[in-house]
Specification:
By secondary structure, the protein is mostly helical. The protein is built from 20 helices and no strands.
Length: about 500
């Protein structure tokens, strides 16, 4: 592929060959990636008991409402995916709707948020492995070697081809959801503790003082579902597979979470489950599966929590690598991060960089004597979660702005109503999370303030970066989030072309 000679050498995108492998992923593969990122078993065994303590037996509805909100968001989000084919996903959509300065701020926020979500989880990997070793073998396993080994293992998974990762996640996700379904079957077959009840869905049990906190936990439980669009360049028939995978992921998670939390309530009974969760929050699900299935199932659940964390890490690692690849192709990040492995067709240099960054952060927390769970996990993950919610809000607004300017045949429901409702609901979700930030971190008000400020600060840092690019690297700025050529969508380089609607590659962007 030729590059215009008017473009300075330092602004040229990486070479066309090799690139990501197009047509590698089907609907199910992409859905496995994003559901694995949510870590359903870890969310249920680790967080759902606290949701029951705070929200009572109406907790299942909180997860349903969060799922409905994100399904509404997905309507406009997936509609945008048919019109914007850039590998930048979030930041590309936001750029096309709200302009390059906002888009560059969003790109920086996406990169930081996804890295925070992944790196913090290495603290959870260390503690979950230690807890499993103590429960099964009575041994004490230090968290740091486990976290470092996890970094190497996940780095290798990202180094391999994307379909290799999809196969691994398929096995791990089946294991973690399977053990929860085993618990559900056993509880339902036995009729629960005092008979099965639908009281969890009665308005009097849903509209309680703790329901706002449950909703906040609910939104956090879906983290990463929007990453379906990141795999567009490797998807088979992306106009169909990406929207399908998004709806499947949101629908499955919403229904599955609500069902499993309801099952846990039935296992102890409506009158006793809150007290049981208060007395043993961390062990609620293990007690339930021991009672209804047996000790061997509790041992499996301990093991599958570790594999659930590994699946989450691999899913986020792959998403981060592709964001870094896209930004390297844009010329915003160093060109070396845009290199794709000639055999595995993976963004392996970006993967090595992400693994190295993870190691630096993990070692820094260890050297500071920080707790791997309450500090590495919670303090690093929380800004990442907030950052992703902010990006969803910006994307919802961008959908409305984009379709007001371009000719299209999409209905008003997809281009105005759904994204507008989603934007309002996402503002409410962000307010809920910020208002209950202490439940996510267990930290002081000073620490919580810092954690909340991280996302807007990172986004704001992107604005002077945009100004610098416009002045110092105008071609990079001009081509930011532009459309790839049809033949080059999976090729991994910076060649751009007009949109499928026929307008100029930048005509759909707001005036700046």
């Amino acid at each position: 592929m030729s590059v215009s000679t008017s473009q300075p050498p330092e602004e040229r995108a990486p070479s066309a060959a090799p690139g990501l492998r197009p047509g590698s992923l089907g609907t199910a593969d992409i859905a496995f990636f994003v559901v694995s990122a949510a870590a359903p078993l870890t969310v249920m065994a680790g967080v759902a008991p606290l949701a029951i303590v705070l929200g009572g037996i109406g907790a299942p509805v909180g997860y349903l409402l969060a799922g409905i909100t994100l399904a509404v968001f997905a309507v406009g989000f997936t509609t945008m995916s048919r019109h914007v084919r850039s590998g930048g996903a979030f930041y590309a959509y936001i750029t096309r709707g709200l302009g390059r300065p906002v888009g560059i701020g969003a790109a920086l926020l996406a990169l930081v948020a996804y890295n925070a979500m992944a790196i913090g989880v290495y603290g959870l990997l260390g503690t979950a492995t230690g807890d499993t070793a103590a429960a099964l073998f009575g041994t004490d396993v230090p968290w740091l070697p486990v976290a470092l080994a996890g970094l190497l293992l996940i780095g290798y998974g990202g180094y391999r081809s994307v379909d290799f990762g999809a196969k691994v996640l398929r096995v791990l996700l089946v294991a973690e959801t399977g053990i929860l379904l085993l618990l559900a079957i056993a509880v339902l077959a036995d009729g629960g503790a005092h008979g099965l009840s639908a009281a969890s869905f009665a308005p009097d049990n849903v509209l309680v003082s703790g329901s706002a906190a449950v909703l906040a936990f609910g939104f956090a439980a879906f983290t990463g579902f929007e990453s379906t669009v990141i795999y567009r360049r490797e998807a088979r028939d992306p106009e169909r597979t990406v929207p399908r995978a998004t709806y499947i992921a949101v629908g499955f998670l919403g229904v599955f979470y609500a069902f499993i939390v309801w099952v846990a309530i039935q296992a102890f009974g409506d009158a006793d489950v809150v007290r049981a969760a208060e007395e043993d929050t961390a062990g609620l699900f293990f007690t339930a599966i021991t009672t209804y299935v047996g000790d061997w199932a509790a041992d499996l659940m301990h093991l599958f929590i570790v594999t659930s964390v590994l699946a989450c890490l691999l899913a986020f690692h792959n998403a981060i690598n592709r964001y870094a690849l896209a930004l390297a192709e844009e010329g915003v990040l160093p060109r070396a991060l845009g290199r794709v492995h000639p055999r595995h067709r993976s963004p392996y240099v970006a993967g090595i960089a992400q693994t190295a960054l993870g190691a630096v952060v993990v070692l820094a927390f260890w050297a500071a004597g920080a707790d791997p769970y309450s500090q590495l996990l919670l303090w690093v993950n929380t800004p990442g979660m907030l950052g992703l919610l902010v990006l969803q809000l910006l994307a919802a607004i961008a959908v409305i702005c984009y379709f007001r300017r371009v000719p299209h045949q999409e209905g008003v429901l997809r281009t105005v109503l759904a994204p507008a409702v989603a934007a309002v609901l996402l503002v409410a979700a962000i307010v809920l999370v910020v208002d209950h930030i202490d439940l996510f971190t267990g930290a002081s008000s000073t620490v919580n303030t810092v954690l909340v400020v991280v996302s807007p600060a990172v986004f704001a840092a992107g604005l002077p970066l945009a100004w610098w690019l416009r002045r110092s690297r105008p071609q990079v700025y001009a081509d930011f989030a532009a459309e790839p050529a049809e033949e080059d969508e999976g090729a991994g380089h910076g060649k751009r072309a007009a949109e499928s609607t026929g307008q100029d590659k930048h005509s759909a962007e707001p005036a700046e």
